[in-house]
## 1
Amino acid sequence: MSATANLATYNFAYLDEQTKRMIRRAILKAIAVPGYQVPFASREMPMPYGWGTGGVQVTAAVIGPDDVLKVIDQGADDTTNAVSIRAFFQKVARVAVTTRTAEATIIQTRHRIPEAPLAAGQVLVYQVPIPEPLRFLEPRETETRKMHALEEYGLMHVKLYEDIARHGHIATTYAYPVKVEGRYVMDPSPTPKFDNPKMHMSPALQLFGAGREKRIYAVPPFTRVESLDFEDHPFEIQRFDAPCALCGSTGVYLDEVILDDRGGRMFVCSDTDHCESRRAAEPAAQTPAETLR
Amino acid sequence: MSEVTDEEPLLRVHGLSKFYGNRVGCQDVSFELWPGEVLAVVGESGSGKTTLLNGLSARLMPTSGSVSYRMRDGAWREVYRMSEAERRLLMRTDWGFVHQNPADGLRMTVSAGANVGERLMAVGERHYGNIRATATDWLGRVEIAADRLDDAPRAFSGGMRQRLQIARNLVTAPRFMFMDEPTGGLDVSVQARLLDLLRGLVREMGLAAIVVTHDLAVARLLSDRMVVMKDGRMVETGLTDRVLDDPHAPYTQLLVSSILQV
């Protein structure tokens, strides 16, 4: 028997229908209470915890045969995690896949939001390692739940205060805490804080799945997402001195790529799709990397 | 004693009892505390002092009895009938709690400044400069050098930690403080300075306080009035000087005569 025939014993999108219903209920509750962490009965997935089991379960629960899936890992479509998860859904759900942000209906992401603006009808699924923004400040789950319930978020500012006291500025650069719709403080998963403003009033639905921690939370379309800060130390995103070395983009998030062991390096777009589409649009543009040779 | 213009008490305790199964934690405790008054609760270990303190400070649900507190707006509220959100707000704004072990009342991993600033941030202060200025001011008032502002309390001595804990509690200008053996575990010279500081702050801010201690000298120095506990019951209450100089109950007489004379 071929590998595909064996898969006939699997349900569509790997999870059984009961599990999907359970996850959908959690998602609906999460959408109804933006930023609130809804517990769910996370399943064993054919991948280790920490590799996106939460995101995969959320995707499996919302995906349909007509969906077009894009998976990114640190912004890239071609890294191990992204390739494996994309192949997984190609196999178990036989859905169309793409690397184009605009063509996708579901984008599963690990730690980036695509540079191209998302549109209404798209779903962004985040893989979340630690959903509790207060975890490293208050280790007791009973206490952090109470703090969310009573909206006691002074402690979150204690952390930002410590940052300023130690470094002179807010040194948190990723997993930067946000307040959703003026109520719940939420960890936007370890995306760089560069992406925080993109979450604000986004027309796309944003779903967060944490498999090991068994939590799902959501930001519905057009929801206020504000990064926490101090009046005299306002929230700021990272800025880069040079444009992308490949496509020349400015105002995008860049990755540092080490070229050799003599200190050679270049900064390129972390969002590979964005970079490739820009280069495809201007094929004549000489890239600095090519000029080096 | 500073002038007390208020016509009503701040705290009313009526018939407070707490049982641990069949064992008595404290039984039938009733008293009133007036604004600006310092009440000492003394007694030997196991006499129910800590149970009473926890019962009063909304940390331990009593088996029976009531604790009522007069809020800033003058309304009487029963502490155990409030919603948890209100109670916790009260505990971090109008109340303070000084633990015997400073590690229980401080965040040991964040700087002294953040420790003092936490309550301010919890009630909505969002200006870093103001928080820092207030924290610096408070460190000065509890005699901690300003250059220790960014040090973690782990790097502090026992006496400094205790003073930091006091500053952390007083920063929201509470009207009422609980203190559980505030000088316990400190050597005598440090104790003396801490007591001096506490006395100054209590008088200056018009604080009401309940101080639990087994040290009668601490009670004599700090308190206006005194409650003597034995086996979970109040055996004697009265002005501190009266109780210590002319004890009525046999147990109090024993307690007073047990003080070592140096």
Note: The mean pLDDT of chain B is 91.
## 2
Amino acid sequence: MKSFLKSVVFTLCILGFFVFVCLYVTGLSGGGGGGGGATGISPEAGEKIYWGDGQCHTCHSIGTSGSATRGPNQEGLAARAEERAKEAGLSSGLEYLVESIVNPSAFVVEGYDNIMPKVYDAPIMLDREQIQAVLTYLQTLGGESNIEAVAKFAEKIPEASGEAVAPWLPPIDVDIKEGELVFFDESRGVTCSKCHVLNGKGSKVGPDLTGIGAVQTPEYLIESVLKPSEIIVKGFETMYLMTTEGMAYNGLLVSQDEDEIVLMVDEDGVMEEYVFYPDEIAQMQKQEVSIMPGNFRDMLTTKEFYGVIMFLLSQK
Amino acid sequence: MNSKKLNFKIVFTIFLALFLVALTVNTGMAEEGAEETVAVEASGDAGEVAEAEEEVASVPYEEAEYRNFFGIDGRLIVWIISQLHLLFAAFVLAVPLFVVIIEAIGAKSNQIKFDNLARELTKLLSTAFATTAALGGLLAFALYGLYPGFMRYMTDVFHPYMFVYALCFFGEVFFLYAYYYSWDLLRTGTGKWVHVFLGVMLNVFGTTLMMLANSWATFMMAPAGIDMKTGAILDRGAAFHNFLWMPVNIHRIIANVAFGGFVVGAYAAVKFMGSKTEEDKAHYDWMGYIGNFIGLAAFIPLPFAGYYLGREIYSASPVMGNIMMGGAFSWTFIIQAILIGMMFVGGNYYLWNGMARIKGAERYTPYIKYINIVIFFCFAVWLTPHNLPLSGEERALIGEQYHPFSKFFGVMAAKNAVVNLLILSTFFSFLLYRRANKGQTMPFKSHGNGAKITMVFTVGITIAYLAWYAMGLKGQDLSEVVKPYMSPLLTCITIQIIALICALFLTLANKGKLAQTLLFVVAASISVVYFWYYGFVLMEKANMVLRFLSVTQVSIVISTLIVNTVIDVFLFKNAKEVGGIQWGKIPNRAQYALLLLCVAIVTLMGLMGFIRSGLRMNWHIYGYMQDKSAGAFTPSIAYMGWVVSLIVFLFLALVAVVFWLGSLYGRKEKHV
């Protein structure tokens, strides 16, 4: 019995080691991997898809990032695409990229096999929006992204070949008009339009939401309202600033140069600009918390909340 | 004693509690559920309204696609049951394979100890069989109950084979019990060979059963014979004999034998440690040695079978192949490398400890430390990830994303090289063990014409295989840019063929040891040193030749192993013994090596089960039927770790109970 118990303890030790390795590896690899959370058409979303759900990285490296060698290294791709487009008689490098994704056999680079799958077909099944996002990311590799130009090629990109996905609907019946009213309702303590511009109306404190429904998914919008600090749009990070007199401020960075720093600070629901001179700043650093209030769950009813989401989704 | 028992109970309770907590709050699950929670919370009152409406309206019947198991994720339940069933089935299928061989050896050599061992193992088999069948039934109920939509389609495709499966099951049951209960009846003369025949038939039915079930699993990975858009069944035979069927069959048969051997080894180890008499110790020591021998013998070719399977997965679907080695599952192969490394270290450690019971082995012990160094070096290279994560500061300091030195150990070229070195080292270790108590060898000529024919035949077969593969390489339709990179592979195969011919002549000229050394040196120089370097060249300049390099590498090593084994058999046949083997005189710590091997291979099978199923990502049937259940996501490695270790624990606990039940019958017999 004693030897049996020793064997059990020994077995548990091995299993404990195995679990430890798994936990450690999860920490190293950054969790489950994949490209979850990539939404909308932007280079940032495209980058996530490239290294995640799109599985592009399993064949293509970018410079020293990635180790795949099955397909060409994509460093400086945008510039190279322009040259290839000229050789192939296409109008632009972007058209070359679109053509290469839509029909991978069209331009097989010399020295490489014709093995690239159609990413809109099973099993990868990227949808049109995801492919557009990847295109905007590829544009940044040796060039600049141009979302509008990519959008013009939308019709050329096939939709994912799987079953048609039913359009998203809120769990309750809502009125988009009511959502619009809530969005612009100045009588409330906190109103969306106090910080966001939509079709020219509102304040430019947060990101402009004009046309947001065309580039973002319902999941992204729901998360952005309920958990504003989860994804902070680039350029809208909160700054923490402490003056030499010991006064602390949290706000959005409006401008920064050698002479002065301007912060937009929330003063009891009213956004005010504060100017600071370099000699009066003791400390300044980016925060991981959004300036957007995180308590909309308490301030809106379920109907109002989904009304606003549906209103934003209708902005295409 | 009471306090010890209490401590044990407390530790066990904490362990179970940890599992439950981990399963419910672990990242893989929690993250996936997070969005749902947000939506549900936000729509709380709306849900209540909808529920009230539902009560009023008449609800039409809808066929369920997915169900949960009393609130527990259906996938988790199916995962645990199917893996447990697979582990028991692996044992039940593997043990008869070597039991029949052991029995036949006993019958041929008239050594009763082999017959007794075969019988003892069969006793374990018969008790494990009922558990396997019960788990199989449970798995079928779980699948039909929790995944009815998916199983409806699988039944449509495979229903004729399901009846064949049931028939084979009856066949296996019949031959298992006939084999077990006729042991005394068919003990002597022709009867013994009839008994061996019953064992062979048991294996035929068991293996057929496994291959039938394999086709369903591989169909899910590489569907064939159906319309990929509509699902219409076009060719049922093609669905059965799909692209991955045979590679999985080969891999599973070899893995099962290794698994069965190591489980038997662990059983013997526990029995050895609990033995009171010298006789029992000697018996279980010998049983542990046989178990380890079978396990290691099957384990050595296993990486090759694994490589073949991996290559075929790439061929079946490059996307799936990429997910496996370059995508979401690449990190799981680091864990696999750790487990396999542990097994190689454990296997060698047991052999070295085993040499302590052999007089004359001290001549070889100085070599062991060098083998040890080589094995740990291989282990280290194997588990080096290519993209070793660096912090921002480290990256800035180094100036590039990967470490300038370690990155060369992380790529496939390095890993292929060291796995071959690992296998050659373990094989070398085994050769040392074999010759530990042997002295002066007999001249090869003294073994007669039979030995010559066997040598010529073995060398001829290996050369024929290498030549056939080289012809295939020559005939590859490659572009002119890439073709020149094939020439070094052909040159290396030619060198190996010349080395094999030289080894043949050296052996015939009574210089067997020199022949073995020559083959070892040539194989290590080509497959380890040169191909390690050449792999990097190919990665940069002709990536598509890499796949041929790996097979060439493996072929050269395998040909060396086969020919060197045959040379060794004749080299030490009738050789003078320096001293006998003192069975039972092995340190207890060696038994822990056997336990390690068993736990590691069970865990490894759990891990590989996760990888094989997980590669389909969110597909039930890859590319045709999507998994739309809540559990369609790929769990995190941490979550996998908890589930797999739970499965391993359950399996080992069940095995302990089953073997204990089996031993009760023996005890009763003894008392009578």
Note: Confidence is low (pLDDT under 50) at residues 31-36 of chain A.
